[in-house]
Structure formats: C-alpha cells, structure tokens
Amino acid sequence: MRVAAIVITYNRHELLKECLDSILSGTVVPDVIVVDNASTDNTPDLVKNYPVKYVRLENNLGPAGGAEAGQRYAYENKYDFVWMLDDDVVVSKDALYELLHYYDLLVRQFNKIFLSSVTYGDKEFKKPFYNLLRYDFRTGLTKKIRDEEFHRDYFEYDIAPMNGLFIPREVFDIVGFFNGKLWGWYDDTEFVLRSKKVGFRGFAITKSKIYHPIEYRKQVKILGKTFTILSGRPYRMYLGTRNNITVQKKFLKPWNFYFIFLPAFIFKRFISIVFFYDNKKEFLKNFFRGIIDGLKEKLEVQNV
User: Fold this and answer.
1) Are the C-beta atoms of 141 and 150 separated by less than 8 Å?
2) Start and end of every Glycosyltransferase 2-like domain (predicted)?
3) End of a domain among 211, 226, 261?
4) What is the span of the domain harbouring residue 93?
5) Ordered DSSP codes for 178-222
6) Sorting pLDDT into bands at 50, 70 and 90, what band is 198?
7) Backbone φ/ψ region at 294: left (φ over 0), alpha (ψ -120 to 50), beta
8) Confidence (pLDDT) at 224
C-alpha cells in the first residue's frame, strides 16, 4: 500500500523541519508531499535536504487550497492513502503504523471508513485536544467526545480536524477533495460531513498520536465548563464564521438551519467575544461580516 503524508506549509520552515524529522523517523515511513503555499522564507531551501516531493503553489491558497492541491497530486500519482498534517506537528513514532494496523482491522468490519490520529497539546501526549466531535445532523449542534473514549483503542466521531485525517483513495473516488474555495477553517468539517453523507464512517485511533502546539487559542471556563476560543488574528473569526455558516447551510434543512443552528451559533459566539476576547471591536466586525458573507455563500477571500 502506498501512503502519502501531505504536509501543508506557509512560512514556517523551522517548524516544518521538526515535522519532517518526526515523520521520517517513524516505524513506518510514508512518501512525504510538502505543499508550499508560496512561502517567502527558507522553505524551498529546507526541503532540498529531505527526500520529499515538493509541490509549490503560485499563490497562498490557504489551508483548504493547499489540502485540495495535495490531495489531487496524491490521487493523480495513485496513492492508496493520504495522511493530512499541518507543518507544525510532531508525530509519534508509531502514529502511522497504528493507523495502518487499525485500518486493516476496521475496514473488514465497517467497510467504508476513514481514520484520524488523536491530537495532543503537549509532547508527552497526556492532554488530548477535544476537537473530535459528535454532530447532530438535524440541528448542526455538536458535543465533545467523552473522556473515557480516549482510553479505548478507537472510537467513532462525526467531525474531525484536517490535521491527522487518514483518508483512503476510495473516499476521493466518491466524494472528491477538500473544497479549496473555503480557504481555511471548517473545510475539514465540510469534507468529513460530505463523506459521512454517502456512508463512510470516521474512527479515531487513540494509539496514533500527534503533537500540535496550541496557537491562537485560549481556554476559558463558563459555568464550570471549559471552552476553547480563538485569540490573536481577527480574520480567523471572519473565516471561521463565514465557513461554518456556509457549511451548515449546505447540510441542514432550512428550518433547522435558520431557527435552531443559526440563533444558537450567533448567540454563543457573540457572548464569547464580548466577555472573553481582546480587541473586541475587530473581532466583532469580522464576526458580523462573516455572518453576512456566510449567508450569501460568498467565498472570496478579500482583506481578511
């Protein structure tokens, strides 16, 4: 079986180096495809020192555009699986081995599947991100996976981040690639939900571990519950809001979208900005602009 690890990068050559070192020192070593979103740093010189395939894009197409380009390249070059990775991750030594091992076991039982590694916020792999979610296809509302499920060999999910997705060729045959028009944020949600709509099931493999630094996020407690919110760059609020609305509008029935999902989403996001964000004015401006463009399904990225 031919496996391609697709690493999407933009101007982070030092982090990319650590990422490539970890992939290439694994117990199972894939082919590595570095998709460069037109970096202006030393990325082109760095990759010359590694046995990788280098796909340089003419413009920065964002995480979604880079993912789509990498997947098309892997598909055209007849790879059986792709493993999607950000350029700032460090993968555990057995991460890919465990994915292949459990794919062989689970595909016999469930037939149409894709997998995910489990992402951690610490290099000791003790604090998993709770970014694998259950999804209600009637309301668009999500809930976290219970803690105890992370202690099992695997568990099923409905929504997963791009980082760590392990996708067999069969998925691309049927549903196509990531939607590059989204540019970034919720492009992974759209792809996974699209795949589930045609009968694929997603499973997280808990022994396949990857470290991802917590960037542009902070955690706050509200009524005893811990929530993760964006911090740093307001344009991410625009993209996340626009894309989430666009994606939910695609998958939900109109009544459920307008009268259940949308009010709940706007209320929770507005409250979080007002009470917990710095630079509230810029975040609110990008939030409301994201609502408008999401409802219009306007996916051009301009001045964000």
Assistant:
1) no
2) 6-104
3) 211
4) 3-211
5) --GGG-SSSHHHHHHHHHHHTT-EEEEEEEEEEE----SEEEEEE
6) very high
7) alpha
8) 59
